Amino acid sequence: MNQLLILPILLPLATAILAALARDRPRAAQGIALAGAALHLAGCATLFILIVRIGVTALWLGNWPAPFGICLVADYLSVIMVLITATIHTAVTVYACRDITAEQVSSGFHSLLGILTGAICGAFLTGDLFNLYVWFEVMLMASFGLLVMGHRPCQLTGAVKYVTINLVSTLLFITAIGLIYGLTGTLNMADLHGKIALVGDDALLTAAAMLLMVAFAIKAALFPLFFWLPASYHTVPVAVSAYFAGMLSKVGIYALLRLFTLVFSSTAAITHSTLAVIAGLTMLFGVIGAATQMEVRRILSFHIISQVGYMALGIALLTPLALAGAIVYLVHHIIVKANLFLVSGLIRQGGGTLHLPRIGGFYSRHGLVTIAFFIPAFALAGFPPLSGFWAKLVIIKAALEIQHYTLAIVAALVGLLTVLSMAKIWTEVFWKPAPAVQHEQKTDVRFSPWLLAPVLVLALTTVLLGLAMEPLLQFALTAADQLLDPRDYVRAVLGGTP
Amino acid sequence: MVHTDHDLLTRRCRLMGRLSSLLPALLFILTCRFWPAIVDGQTYLFDAPWLPSLDLSLRFRLDGLSLLFALIITGAGTFVSLYSSSYLGGHRHCGRYFFFLHAFMLSMLGLVLADNLLLLFVFWEGTTIFSFLLIGFDHESKTARENARQSLLVTGGGGLALLLGILLLKIAGGSYIISSWPAAGEMVRQHHLYPFILLAVLLGAMTKSAQFPFHFWLPNAMSAPTPISAFLHAATMVKAGIYLLMRCHPLLGGTPAWTTALVLIGGFTAVWGAVQALGPRDLKRILAYTTIMALGILTMFLGGQTAPALTAAVTFLMVHALYKAALFLAVGSIDHSAGSRIIDSLGGLWRAMPLTAVAVGAACLSMAGFPLFFGFIGKEIMYEGALAKEMYPVFAVTAAVLANALMTAVAAIVLFGPFFGSARAPRQQIHESPWTMWLGPLVLGGVGILFGLIPEWVSRVLIEPAVRSFHPGPEEIRLVFFHGLNLPLLLSLVTLCCGATLYLLRHRACRLVATVVEKLPATFEGLYNLGLSGFMNGAGLLTGRLQNGSLHFYLAVIVSTVILGVGWPWIGKLSGIFGRWPESIDTTALALLLFVSGSVFVVVTARKRLAAIGGLGGVGAGVALIFLLFGAPDIAMTQLLVETLTVIFVSLVMLRLPAIEQARRRTVRRRCLDGGLALAGGLLLTSLLIGVGSEPLDRSLTSYFEANSYLAAHGRNIVNVILVDFRSFDTLGEIIVVVLAAWAAVTLIRKPMEP
């Protein structure tokens, strides 16, 4: 049964190869990508169900026992991340059928997206620190490929910043790996959990942990390391930006969540208190940055930063409830944020631009888009009973419970400022009448069902998640327990035999 | 064609409105069915789990207070919905309108029925969001949009404060179950978090119920359609804060902090709201300020502990809901028929609109507190309550008399202004509004008279059960038609005389208020706007500074973060690391160090690109030599190969770029800063490596590889076996990386798709 663990990685990679072979026939490539995405979703769902049934499971690649070979590990956190990745991958692939041009398909869009998905799933499933690094590299290159696809000057400026800053991150990551290996002699994360306690030099360990944290913080776009994100997300095709917005920075959050519970939880208190401060600043700066923007995708990009801050806060607080809050927030955020970017594509199609002063009138003209925006936007702003409210509630509650009053107030305040931003888009794009002079204004735009379907399905998911939060919260609490008490994880990796 | 379309829309709208008003009507009837049992002291409970992990259940409870609110909500909802079916005419969004209206009504019902505080909060936010959507219903008007946003921010901010309060309450040992509060109040009031809980709950209630200094959003919310103002911003939603205070009374009330805060804030809000009601000329704005006054009065009396004070609050709540909803709806009719709601351009309407005039007359007399009207009963009990000793009687009585006198004057202005005096428009042009629009005001106004005549019945079936549900006690709760000659009656007389005088002096008074309000150096609305624009400016400045587009700056920040974040906890160890010189110096290593350092120097100072690349190659070669020195010839080989290829490729690319001198030169200060950062970063990493190097290395992995490479993996070269077998999964990833890099390069080299 544990062979299933490889599926989330191999399926999209295989799809990528097939799509690359068929790239001169865009329709065929699309068909392959759609089938691959559906299969991937089915595979990830199966894995999800399996792990919920049997608990933490490991797969030793090449049958080399841990910690000597590389192993994949699926616990609750991993499987929900993988499932959500497959969901977004499928939604974006469907959306891309109309959003991505034939030319972009033939320059390899579907292959790059497939590789990126495989790499992200690899990062979520791997139980090996160096292997995590490898998947980070694959992600970086695949996302770079997607960033420069189309090759417009503004894309290139964004891509250069993106790739340079992220290279710094991988450099720091590999340095940290070197230090950690030097101190413990192992790369297997379950093994590290035990070995880290044996390291004599606390200061050295803290330094290595901090280095690792900075590397992940760059990936997660935490303050003050977020520069690459607002520089690049608004330059790419909508489908790509939606995928990036949903997934990329969250891999950084996942890595923080994994490493700073499993490996560095008891040994390095300073890392978590630092992370708490950073999280507060990240939340604040994200909304502050968003307040000044007048372009839809730029506003949304800055909000990613602020919300990553909430998740980082959950990690920093390190209580079961806080970690569960971070996980709920992750799930909610990925769905909602990807959806908002997808909706921005509809807005651009209907209004010809994403620049707030130059669009308007959607409230009267496009009822369906209005609903499709309203739900994720106000979920993001944290209005009950939508998913964002519960995520915010759990994190604030966790902060209050351990007397982090300032951070709780910051989190609430940031919620208010998020309302401000969402209300800004709402009033400008939807309520405001369309400006008289509109370039490329099409009077009756009909949106393709390929574009509307994923948007509406994700919006419906947001509503359902909000109404039926209990199962997700229960799941997240169990996942948090697994993170805080990784005995099952360690036993699954080191205890079993290939 | 356009005309028929409009007719069709009008008909559809009318049908939609009339059909949908069945929903509140049925709910009203349903509520009435529970009424007798509630009077007998029963309560109804519904409980189903929703989110047990957060102690949130779908727990609804119907008691006296909930019943009173539910009756107001569904009753007003019926008339408002019916009214809207004509008021909206053929508005193209009437479907959305009725959806929002009824969704709001259900949220509001949920709010007053919820017996779980978190559930109450969920509905609380629901009312906020639907209020936002309805204030901005006239969405093509910029003012409406801005006012909607303002109300969303003010009430939303209060909502978040309330959420903090709710969570703190739980931490302080309180329960979310509202009906359990009367028993468990003492513990929460003793808890050290009590002041914060109180503050947070007060903030929530004050923003929602438009208390000073958050009152400014309410007059602005008048850009909503008039029936919405009648329903949300007079009869129901603004009372949500009041409702919350009533529910919290047994839990948080009774402390000096509670009483002082509520009496002072409420009293001040009441007087200030009433004074400001004299300023505007727009009937809706006048009514909005009187609503603020009413909300202030309610808050003030909730500060009290005694039965008369709390009875006064509940009674006045009903009085106000009745007359204010009637007045708003009537103003909408006037606007609809006469085409204006500016008081100076209206007059003599009573001939054209007799039914509306009667309704307004009844409502205004109740508002002014004339005997025989329900308002009179409300005022009597108000003065009785204000005289209680914990209410700061002098302050409370003064505030109540002042506010009521002003109210009397405003009632006279609202009644006499539009309906009497000389007609401003030919009579033929103005018609009485359709029955759907006069029915509501007339019934609501009529109930105001009816209740004034049978106060004892009202107090027995409505007021007493409501007060008892948050103030259980032995005290008698009774409203009577005539109290006899006592101090409250005297105060009532004083109020009416003052009101009459004020009405006679109204022109001067209105001008005075208008000037004073205009001359105010700072209003809280101004402060709000200033805060918002200040925030925007500050945010623009900060974002411009940080996200400034310079990659050089970004990297400098990142490197500084690394140095600070990693170096800070490590700094104590630095002296230990660098203070310990090796006993013997390896000359080969020293030579290599000098070589690499020299190459770095060349890179940094080079004026020609080719020289810089050469220097870089030197650094790489030096590193390869270090590998050789430590007995890793294969790695050294790889390193040399990579370095050579890099130098060749980079040189090829560089030859096509402009000379380095043409690039922007950095200032000396910047260069020093960069150099400092680079040095610090280098030192940090070096020290870390030295530190790790001095720790013992765990060789269990290496020994496993040594033992199994040949026997189990059938390979002689351990490094190769690691790459292709033990860790072949890594290699898979790296192969993908190489392919992708090539792919990206091809994409970049290709011609651009479009500019």
The helix count of chain B comes to 30
Class of secondary structure makeup of chain A: mainly alpha
Span of the ends, CA to CA of chain A: 12 Å
- Tell me about the biggest sheet of chain A? 2 strands, antiparallel
How many structurally independent domains of chain A?
1
Strand order of the largest sheet of chain B: 1-2
Q: Indicate the mean pLDDT of chain B.
A: 88
Tertiary shape of chain B: elongated
Count of helical segments of chain A? 21
Structural class of chain B: mainly alpha
* Average pLDDT rating of chain A: 91
- Low-confidence stretches of chain A at least 5 residues in length (pLDDT < 50)? none
Domain NADH:quinone oxidoreductase/Mrp antiporter transmembrane (chain B): 114-399
Pfam families (chain B): MbhD, MbhE, Proton_antipo_M, Proton_antipo_N
Domain MrpA C-terminal/MbhE (chain B): 670-751
Domain MrpA C-terminal/MbhD (chain B): 595-658
